[in-house]
Design goal:
The chain has 1 helix and 9 strands. It is mostly beta strands. The strands form 3 sheets. It has a 4-stranded antiparallel sheet with strand order 7-2-5-9, with no helix packed on it. A 3-stranded antiparallel sheet has the order 4-3-6, with no helix packed on it.
Length: about 110
């Protein structure tokens, strides 16, 4: 459904790394609190790597122009994925840039 997040996932055995090559995607993460999920957003920058740590609920918001590389352990989406989300979450999440994502620079061409 346009304008809503309808799926998040987490991996309990491995981190997942995202690298934006082109355009303006956003990583969306959530941690569990007694009141429910607490949502955070990280606007991605091209050439920067983003590590999503083990057990962090996450998804990525993309446009058709976005090009993103996803790096994960072999078999992660077959054997190590949880995907519950009872209700869609509006994309109007206006939270500060997340400190939960580990951000680093991707080395340029040599």
């Amino acid at each position: 459904r346009p304008g809503a997040i309808d799926r998040v996932e987490r991996h309990k055995q491995t981190d997942e790394v995202f690298l934006l090559l082109r355009a303006a995607a956003a990583l969306i993460g959530a941690t569990e609190t007694p009141a429910g999920l607490s949502w955070e957003v990280q606007r991605m920058r091209p050439g920067v790597t983003y590590n999503v740590p083990t057990s962090l609920w996450h998804t990525i918001a993309m446009t058709p122009d976005d090009v993103v590389v996803v790096v994960e352990k072999n078999g992660t989406h077959l054997n190590d994925v949880e995907k519950p989300l009872p209700d869609p979450i509006p994309l109007k999440i206006q939270s500060p840039i997340s400190s939960r994502f580990h951000v680093g620079r991707c080395p340029g061409p040599t």
